[in-house]
Structure formats: structure tokens, C-alpha cells
Amino acid sequence: MSAAGSSLALRRRWTDLIASGYDRLVASDPGLARLRLALGVLVSVVLAVVVLGLAGFAITGVLLGASIAMVTASGPVQRTLRRQAAVIGLTIVPAAGALTLSALLGGHRLVSDLVFLAVIFVAVYIRRIPDYGFPLGFPAFMMFFFASFVGASPAALPVLLLAILVGLACAGLIRIVVLPPRSARTFRRVRRGFQARLAQVLDSVTDLLTDGPAPARLDRLRRRVDRMHESALMVEAELDSPLAPDGAGLHQRRVLAAELAAESLAHEARRAMTAADPPSQADRAVARDRLATLIELIRVDRQRGGSGEFRVPEWVCDREQRLAGVSPAARGLVWAIAEVGAAVTRSRKANHRPVVGPPMDDEEDVPERAERDPVAPPVRGLVGRLLPSTRQAIQATVGCGLAILAGELLSPQRWYWAVIAAFVVFAGTTSAGQTLMKGFRRVVGTMIGIVTGTVVALLVAGDLPLVAGLLFVCIFAAFYLVAISYSAMTFFITVMLGLLYSLLGTFTPGLLVLRLEETAAGAAAGVLAALVVLPTSTKSMLRDAVAGLLDRLAGFVTSTVDLMADGELVDLIDASRDVDADLDAVQTSAEPLLHRASPRRARRSDTRHLVRVLTRCAHHARGIAANAEVAALPADPTLAEVGGRVAANLHRLRAVLRDEPHPEPLVRDENPAAAIGRGAPEGLDERTRRAVDHLTQLDQAVLALARPLGARLADRPR
Questions:
Q1: Other C-beta atoms within 10 Å of 578: how many?
Q2: DSSP-derived 3-state class of residue 106
Q3: SS3 sequence, 309-322?
Q4: Largest alpha-carbon pair distance within the chain?
Q5: Could you tell me which residues are beta bridge partners of residue 680?
Q6: Are 609 and 708 in contact (CB under 8 A)?
Q7: Per-residue b or e along 528-553, where b marks 16 or more CB atoms closer than 10 Å to that residue's CB
Q8: Confidence grade of residue 553 (pLDDT, cut at 50, 70, 90)
Q9: Quick one: what percent of the chain has pLDDT higher than 70?
Q10: Cα 86 to chain center, whole Å?
């Protein structure tokens, strides 16, 4: 090979390597949301440190300004830039107030502790205020905390208040001017992320066909399907934005269709490869070649940003060519691959990109979203009558009060580490089990971070540029990983503290060990408060979440009948995403019961089975939404009968969860969809047949909920 050819091959290899790495980044972080968050926090902190350092502020002022910049930049993104600016501007009020109180009361320990508890109560209580509660309450707590950390005094108060203003200005500049949220650009990113997730699913199917159904490959395929679904939800969230692109309803339908096609392909691949008579090597080769073609089309489309031609293979559009030369054992698999290709092509058309190939049928936009009343949770005793923010405010105050007592017993100078550990375990948790899990993860992350932080601090002691660089690396890593692993975030924060103490010249290994002790004491205090003070059990939270999902599914089935039989304009796409949101609440509530540390193995198995069946229900709801057409089966009595029976069974399951006396048994039917559409003169079209099939599967999944929920089944079909 000539030198020019060798150079070209090397360049192509590096290009492919970079493209592969970018694909993995986009797939692991759809929309680059975590990257934007971490970069925004890092740049805000660096800018605040540089500005305050050049202005001649002391180290305490620099730390305080950097901390408020970090807290502000990591807060929730507001819907408009004007509201984002208003939130950042208002932050000065609680931040400056908390800092002033801490500095003035520093010499009066008892009064200071009582005021700190009052700040904690208000900071959690105002989370009930939409958009403003959390971004205004959390900085108040953090400024009181950091004032104790840096030892703020009344004499230094004017300088520290100015440092807060500088930090807020830096965070606002980055968040509003340099890295503002751009819906159109973010939509393109999350769409590319969905494409990357879709390509990963196809790649896993290829591995399954090549190397066989090993448990590890089946598990990897399942995980990638789940991540593709998460990415699809991110696309849906962007399409709900006021700045969403034109034809958002059509985009929603296309994404949902591509997601369902890929899920069906994964199911067909698992079924075919685990069957007694798997596809032959020749059939597998055909399937792998077609998968490789689709993966390459998706990859090139992503790299070009949707520009250029999109050439559709003949076997995607021609129904006869789809199955030409394929044995019966592989027909379902090969057909599913073609369906993925068709869904990808339609998605391209939805974005008004040039598509070259045989003509394909297109679809109309979906109707406008319908307003629905939220499902109210049941009221049980005092806990049920209190809003979650009120209950958590009381729990956090009691937990932090216990943490102050325990922290001061361990160290009168470093007691605040126990308080922050007790405070943060209540953030994002709704039950005692979730609080326990979060406290455990914080202790584990701190423990591992202490060992690493000690080693790193000892190795880089005295090297100011290296210490500063590692500090910024830890800040970036902590916020980049916070959405993935709370323990990883705690690990990097602990390492950062070791470096920070080294920078201040106060580092000792015993200081980090004391942090572990304080963290463990604070986490234990928070968990104790969650278990004793107005406790909300994980089991009751799961029951309420399941009840809400059953109500949502019943409403979805009723809307399906209204759309297909009566011709009412109902947005089933949006309704199916509401079902997904409720399913996510179920999975979050069930997480403590599914954890390996859960002592009750039988309950863990039952809960896993329940979540699995509910996931099937949500999948079939998405299938109905993707295929149901307005007035597809006008005035079909069988559809109305089947839909009414499925909705009634869901209400009967809901009655079981309410512990109502003598709930009615679930009504069975051996073949609920057999007669749907029988009166149609030309039979059912392909899309309507798919919708009916998904309704049949949903009916069976609802009946399968009887065992995990303790409901009775009727003795015979009626």
C-alpha cells in the first residue's frame, strides 16, 4: 500500500473511531443534557473564581461566590429566559438573608441552630411553589451551610455579600447568555440520541443473531430497549415545549412508531433465537445484512444532521420482497426488521428531509391533546392530608435537628457535615425506603471518596495549578454523573473536599474520616426521621402509584374506544405518555423493594413480577396509540364491549387496592378481540389489525395482574 493510501486508511480509522465515540456519548446522554449541566456548572464556577480572584477577594469570598454559582447553575432549567433571569435575580434574597443570619448568629450557638432549623423548614416547605420553590429554598440552606464552613463573621459580611452577587452574576451570564436552553437545537440533539439508542438496539439484535441467545446478550438487549424508551420520552418532553418544532404531533407519532417497531424486533429476535427450531444460518445472514443496512443509514443520517438524501431499500417498501426467499421460521424476524426500516423512513419524512426510494404511505397529524383531570391520591390519616412538601419539611427539620446533636458530639467545629447529609437525603424521595437507599448511597460514596481523596490530596499537596485543575475535574464529574449514580456524585464531592482542604492548607486524613463519621450520623438521623416522623411506607407509596396507573390505563382504554368506534378526536399519543409517566412513578416507588439489600426476598420477587406486567400494559398502550385511527371501526359493538370490559377489570383491580369489601372478580374471555371488525366489508387494514392485537394483549396483561394484586378471576368467561 502506498504512503497516501496508508494515510487515507489511518484517517478513515480515526474518523470512524471518533464517530463511534460520539455515537456512544450521544446514546448515553440523549440531548447532551448531562453534558450541558456539567459544563454550565463548571464554567460558572471557573468564571466566578477568576473574577473574584482577579478582584482581590480573600479565599473565603472566592469559595462563597463559587459555591453560589455552583448551586444556581445546577438548579432546574426554567421554561423561558425571562423566568430564568427572574429566578436567578430573586435568589439573592434568600441567599443573602441566610448568609447574614449565619454570620450574625455565629457566636450564639443555640440560637443559630434554632434559626438554621427554621431555614431548613422554610427551604423544604416552599418546594410546593412551582418553578420557584426549589431554586429559592435550596440556596438559602446552602448559604447558611457554607457560612458555617468558611467561618463567616459580621465584619466580613459586606465582602461576602458582594461575592454572592458576583457568583450569581457569573451563573446568570452562563445560563442565560452563553449556554441558554434552545428548544429547537435540543430537539435535534435528543432526536439524534434516540437514533443512537435505536442503532444500539439493532446492533444488539445483530449480536444475538450472530453469537446466539446467551443470557448476557439477552440482558444487554433488554437494557438497550429500556434506554431507547427513556430516550423516546426525552424526545416527547421536548415536543411538549412551547418552542417545539412545527408538526409536533406528527413527530410524536413517528418516534413512537419507531420505538414500537424496535421493541417488536427485539421480541421477535428473542423468540426466534430461543425457539426449538431457530432460523437457519442463511436466514440469519439475510437478517444481519438488512440490519447492517439500517444501522448504516441511521449512522449516516445522524452524522449529516438530517441533510442529504436518505435512500430506502426496496425490501422496506415492497411487501413481497420483505419475505422473498426466507423460511417460515424467520419470517416474523425479517418482517420486523422491515417494519423498523419503514418507521425510520417515516420519521425522516416527518422532518421534511429528502427520501429516495419507493413510495410509502404517509399519515396525518394527530388531534390536539385533550385536557384530563389528574388522578387524586387516596387520603389516609394525617399523612394523607398533608402535602408532600409539608410532610418532608417536618421530617427534614426533625432529621437535621438530630443531625446537629450528633454532629456536635462528634466535632463542635465540623457538625455541619452531618446536617447537609440529613438534608439532602430528603431531596427527590417520597418514602422511607427511598430515603434509606439514598442515605446508604451517600455513605458508600463518601467512604470510597475518602480513600481516594486522601491519596490524591497527599500526592498533589503544594502544587496549586494541579490542585485547582483536579478540583474542576471533580466538579464536572460530580454533576455529569449525578443523574446516573448518586454514590458517584458523592464520591467526587468527597474527593473535591480533600483537594479543597489541601488548597486551604488544613488537610489531614483524619479530617476526611471525620467527614465519613458526620455523614453516617447525618444520614442515620435523616432515615430515623423518615421512619418515625409522619412516615410514608414504601408499600403504601407503591400501592398509590399502581392505583394511579390503573386509573390512567382505564381512561386510556375508554379513549381508545371513543377514537376508533365513535370517531371522537382524542390524542392517544399524549395519553400513552401519561401512562408511561405513571409507570415511571411505579418503578421509582418500587425501587427500594427491588434492591438487593431488601430483606424480604418473596416480596421482592412479587414486586418484580408486578412491575414487569405493568410494563407490558404500558407497552401495549403505546402500540394502540401508534396504530389507532379515527373512526377505524365506526359503531363496532364488539370493540365497545371489549374496551368496556377491560376498563371495568382495571377498576376492579383499583377496588382491590382500595381494600374495598367484596370486590368483584375480573371477567375473562378466551378470545376478546376475535370478533372485533368482523362486520367490516373488506376486513381490517394493517394498522387497525395491529391496534386490535395490542388491545388483546393488553386485556391478557390486565388479567395477569390478578395474582400479584390479590384479585379474583371469574370461574368462567362471561
A1: 20
A2: coil
A3: CEECCHHHHCHHHH
A4: 88
A5: none
A6: yes
A7: bbbeeebbbebbbbbbbbbbbbbbbb
A8: very high
A9: 82
A10: 27
Phi, psi of 310 (to 5 degrees): -125, 105
Q: Convert the pLDDT of each residue in 319-337 to its tens digit.
A: 667 777 788 878 888 888 8
Rounded CA gap, 408 and 399, in Å? Answer: 14
- Find the distance separating the first CA and the last CA of the chain, reported in whole Å: 77
What cell was used for 303? 452524522
Handedness of CA 240, 241, 243, 245 (dihedral sign): negative
Evaluate whether 341 touches 257 at the Cβ level (below 8 Å). Answer: no
pLDDT value at residue 23: 59
Which amino acid appears at position 618 of this protein?
Answer: A
Phi-psi region of 16 (alpha: psi -120 to 50; beta: other; left: phi over 0): alpha
Own/partner long-range contacts of 122-126 (Cβ < 8 Å, ≥24 apart): 122/393, 123/94, 124/389, 124/392, 124/393, 124/396, 124/397, 124/426, 125/389, 125/390, 125/393, 126/389
Bridge partners (DSSP) listed for residue 355: 310
CA–chain centroid gap for 307, Å, is 30
Helix intervals (H) in 565-670: 572-594, 601-627, 637-657
Provide the β-strand partners of residue 310. 355
DSSP letter for each residue of 640-670: HHHHHHHHHHHHHHHHHHTT-SSPPPBP--S
The candidate with the shortest Cα–Cα distance to 361, out of 235, 257, 246, 259, is 257
**How far is it, in rounded angstroms, from Cα 349 to Cα 254?**
9
Beta bridge partners of residue 246, listed in sequence order: none
Locate cell 421493541: which residue?
263
What is the dihedral sign for C-alpha 630, 622, 545, 187? negative
Cα torsion through 380, 558, 239, 484, rounded to 10 = 40
**pLDDT (mean) for 34-40:** 88
Instruction: Give the amino acid at 254.
Output: R
In single-letter form, the type of residue at position 264 comes to: S
Distance of alpha carbon 424 from the chain centroid? 19
490/334 Cα distance (integer angstroms): 47
Amino acid identity at 145: F
CA dist 522 and 516 (Å) reads: 10
**DSSP string over 274-305:** HSSSPPPHHHHHHHHHHHHHHHHHHHHHHHTT
Are 460 and 466 in contact, with CB atoms under 8 Å apart?
A: yes
Amino acid at 134: F
- The residue ranking higher by pLDDT, 139 or 633, is 139
